[in-house]
Specification:
Helix 8 links the parallel strand 1 and strand 2. Strands 3-4-5-6 form a 4-stranded antiparallel β-sheet. It has a two-stranded parallel sheet with strand order 1-2. 54% of the residues lie in helices and 8% in strands. The protein folds into 2 domains: 72 residues, no CATH class; 208 residues, no CATH class.
Length: 291
């Protein structure tokens, strides 16, 4: 954006000690949209005062965030919001300049490597073993316990970079690849876990899910490692946590709910410190998806 007299005047007031003045200036700058970001970045580079630099960084973040809110609203309104698109929106919260094409290329390479090993004669377990072997052995994907000190572990772009995630981010990668390969694997809302399940359904039958969805699940997958579990293993888990295994725990989660959960979990990484405002923003995005 070309620097006008108004922009110049606003920039001169960014360091004003009066919070009310700064709030007014901020709101006006935000109203100009993301096209003003290059001007703010130039101002940041030529400003020696760290406190003013922090204010500029916050303004740039707020501009990206306003754009992201609109993108989440548009994604939610799609006829079939896709999980990959939602996960990339979450990644953009931390990395607004994310090169989406790089992520898509990495996903496509993974999909192709798995597809080359699949054929129509494989059993469900054999299909899953192909996906798991390539993801966890060939690509060396690792899973760690959820740590709220590591926000990058929740973000798909960083999982692809580092080959390290947690149950949620690894699970989302597994689900994205399953969907691209037409393998009927979905996440199910088993308490205190993020677990995947292989359903005995094809892509035209999801609306015909029985009243007891567990009857249509062949086995379960732990996205931390790709390990497979049986129905008996899951029933043992429910007994151990003293929770009745009702049908609702075996109904597949839709993509909007998965991304909402991801936002809620990522928000826990910003409970304290100078980035605490990010928790409020992430929870606002989660509430937009829940409306």
């Amino acid at each position: 954006m070309e620097e006008t007299r108004e922009i110049s005047a606003l920039f001169h007031l960014i360091d004003d000690p009066d919070d009310e003045v700064f709030t007014t200036v901020s709101d006006r700058i935000i109203s100009m949209g993301t096209s003003i970001i290059p001007n703010l970045e130039l101002l940041w580079e030529t400003t020696p005062d760290e406190a003013v630099q922090e204010r500029i960084e916050l303004l740039i973040h707020r501009l990206h965030y306003c754009d992201l809110v609109q993108d989440f609203i548009r994604w939610k309104k799609l006829p079939e919001p896709d999980l990959l698109g939602g996960a990339l929106l979450v990644a953009r919260f931390q990395y607004p300049d994310l090169h989406v094409n790089t992520v898509l290329q990495d996903i496509e390479k993974m999909r192709r490597n798995i597809w080359l090993e699949l054929n129509s004669y494989l059993t469900p377990l054999e299909q899953t073993n192909v996906l798991t072997t390539i993801l966890y052995n060939y690509y060396q994907l690792k899973g760690g316990e959820i740590a709220y000190t590591e926000p990058n572990d929740f973000l798909l772009n960083k999982v692809l970079d580092t080959k390290k995630g947690n149950a949620m981010s690894n699970g989302i990668l597994y689900l994205v690849l399953s969907d691209l390969l037409d393998i009927p694997i979905r996440a199910v809302p088993i308490p205190r876990q993020f677990i995947l399940a292989y359903f005995d359904l094809d892509n035209t039958q999801w609306s015909q899910l029985s009243l007891n969805p567990a009857e249509q699940i062949q086995f379960y997958i732990d996205p931390m490692s790709g390990q497979v579990f049986t129905q008996k293993d899951v029933e043992t888990y429910f007994r151990r946590i003293s929770v009745p295994a009702t049908a609702s725990f075996f109904k597949p989660l839709d993509n909007i709910r998965i991304i909402q959960m991801l936002l809620e979990e990522l928000a826990k990484c910003f409970e304290t410190g100078k980035n605490a405002y990010k928790q409020d923003e992430l929870l606002q995005l989660a509430s937009i998806l829940g409306e």
